[in-house]
Amino acid sequence: MKKYTAIIIDDIEQARTTIKQDLATYAKDFDVIGEASGVVKGAKLLKNMTPDILFLDIQMQDGSGFDLLDLLSDISFKIIFITASDAHGIKAFRYAAIDYLLKPIDPDELTEALKKFRESGINENDKYKFLSDRLKNHHKPNERLALHSQDKIQIVEISTILRCESSVNYTTFFFQDGQQIVVTRTLKEFGDLLSEQGFFRVHQSHLVNTKHIKEYVKAEGGHLIMNDGNLIPVSVRKRPEVMKMLDRL
Predict the structure, then answer these.
(1) Contact in structure between 59 and 86 (CB atoms under 8 Å)
(2) Which of 11, 18, 126, 246 is 20 to 30 A from 157 via CA?
(3) Where does the pLDDT of residue 66 fall: very low under 50, low under 70, confident under 90, or very high at 90 and above?
(4) Architecture of domain 4-136
């Protein structure tokens, strides 16, 4: 069994203890090699030890988890953030496609986050910078989205997305310039996330950016014509909602 190393940085001792106990119970391939109670001690620890994964509290008494990351010259490890954040904070994590655990930590969610870690070998520096920016500017509209494909992470302008199409647990993004990006997240997740950005679920398999709709053809079951010329089917169940949505545009 492959073994991984972990460091926990949280200013609450009980929180650190709980994570260690959960790892010992549910993830025996992880060994905790260090822990710290704040930004300063955590930065010193990480300059001497490099874990495979870091469990990092967002808000600590001597600063934030991002203050700690700013003190490091490079981030070569995966981070799972620990937060008791409000809705704005959670939304920022979702836009950045970054794993987080809400306090108190649910063992099932911990297990799922570690499963993702084992399957991912991508350097995520850009995502952490993006997340930090979103949390600092949560009062501004979300204009960008991090998409986690098989071999890289791409941060895209939401306005350039034409539509999304699902295939089981995968979602394909289609862009104005003809680019396509496939990510391993469901269409429902993006439907929930992007609804406030003018995206609308018109079919079980299709989510469209309403700003890029050219026409709605009622005949032959009903379909949308997008600005790139693609025809997107509208489900019978969604047809009344689509009509109301188009009236509001």
Answers:
(1) no
(2) 246
(3) confident
(4) 3-Layer(aba) Sandwich (3.40)
- pTM of the entire predicted model: 0.71
Residue with tokens 């920016």, as numbered in its chain: 133
The DSSP symbol for 175 reads E
Per-position DSSP letters for 107-168, written without gaps between them: HHHHHHHHHHHHH-----HHHHHHHHHHHHTTTSPP-EEEEE-SS-EEEEEGGGEEEEEEET
pLDDT digits over 162-212, tens only? 999 999 889 999 999 999 999 988 999 999 999 989 999 999 999 999 999
Buried b (16+ CB within 10 A) or exposed e, 123-145: ebeebbbbbbebbeeeeeebeeb
147-248: what fold? OB fold (Dihydrolipoamide Acetyltransferase, E2P) (2.40.50)
Residue 204 φ/ψ, nearest 5 degrees: -55, -30
pLDDT per residue as tens digits for the range 146-162: 898 877 888 899 999 99
Segment holding 194, helix H or strand E = helix 187-194
- Torsions phi, psi for 203 (to 5 deg): -160, 160
170/155 Cα distance (integer angstroms): 18
pLDDT for residue 129 is more than 90: no
- Confidence band for 218, pLDDT divided at 50, 70 and 90: confident
Residue 155 carries which side chain, given as an amino acid letter? I
